[in-house]
Specification:
The chain is α+β, with helices and mostly antiparallel strands and 265 residues long. Helix content is 25%, strand content 26%. Among the domains are: 107 residues, Ku70, Chain: A, Domain 2, CATH 2.40.290.10; 58 residues, no CATH class. The strands form two sheets. Strands 1-2-6-9-8-7-5 form a seven-stranded mixed barrel. Strands 3-4 form a two-stranded antiparallel sheet. Helix 4 packs parallel to helix 6. It is extended, with a radius of gyration of 27 Å.
């Protein structure tokens, strides 16, 4: 997917940038097939009025303002009502990263400076890093305004879209938490401490996808499917005993050393 070119602005400073998608899907894809002859199932776009199949170039956008009554809006009209401000990312203010709940984050993009914006881009990145802040901005993506967080990284900026408050569901009502004894809490904390380790994203793999790919390779080759050994989950009824055994298991595993944080001058 090509990068989206825009302008990142704060105060009277305008920085031309390109946004590149930061994530991608790596799942195994499946097609829907007809069980009888294993041919692909296709979906056709059909007009409910005349029953004819409609080509992509014949489809327009319509807003239903009354039952079965629409007003057609052209892409050019949607673009025409955007101001230059709407087309850029306007940084509104700066906040501490901890002020934003993780549930607010949505899609991530890498932001890279375009020609002429390199110095201003680097000044913004370093200022955010030194101050321990992130930017909060807004822009229009498609037909919707997007709230964004601008986060400094060692080699650039990451822009993440945020959900608006009315897009986040309230948490389900939970029962009042039970009372816990000091000894129980001490054991829980000890287990957390014994499992403390540095986070490195490359250490984590989609193990199920690996097993799925092996299954597909074996089926394609006509081989017998090798199934993993089933291991039942251990259920220890005594909570304190479960914590104790868990701590013993964790302490036997080799632990990675955490990298020493760089001191800021």
């Amino acid at each position: 997917m090509p990068a989206t070119k825009t302008v990142l602005s704060f105060g009277l400073v305008a920085i031309p940038v390109a946004l590149h998608t930061a994530t991608q899907q790596s799942d195994v894809g499946f097609h829907q097939l007809h069980g009888e002859d294993q041919r692909r199932i296709r979906y056709k776009k059909v007009c409910e009025g005349c029953g004819k199949e409609v080509k992509q170039g014949e489809i327009v956008k319509g807003y239903e303002f009354e039952k079965n009554r629409h007003v057609v809006v052209a892409d050019e009209e949607l673009e025409a009502i955007k101001t230059e401000k709407d087309k850029s990312i306007q940084i509104l203010h700066f906040v501490e990263a901890v002020e934003i709940s993780s549930i607010c984050y949505d899609k991530a993009y890498y932001a890279l400076p375009e020609a002429g914006g390199e110095k201003a881009f680097e000044l913004l990145r370093q200022a955010l890093e030194d101050e321990g802040k992130i930017g909060i901005g807004k822009t229009v993506l498609g037909t919707k305004e997007a709230l964004m967080a601008i986060l400094p990284q060692e080699d650039g900026l990451v822009v993440q879209t945020l959900f608006f408050a009315d897009e986040i569901k309230p948490p389900p009502k939970a029962k009042a938490p039970p009372q816990v004894a000091a000894q129980e809490l001490a054991m829980a904390r000890k287990l957390v401490q014994s499992m403390d380790a540095p986070f490195d994203l490359v250490d984590y793999k989609d193990e199920y996808q690996a097993k799925l790919r092996q299954l597909l390779e074996e089926k394609i080759a006509g081989e017998e499917i090798s199934l993993p050994k089933k291991s039942a989950l251990v259920n220890i009824s005594d909570l304190m005993d479960a914590f104790k055994q868990s701590i013993e298991q964790a302490e036997k595993k080799p632990v990675k050393k955490k990298a020493t944080a760089k001191k800021k001058s």
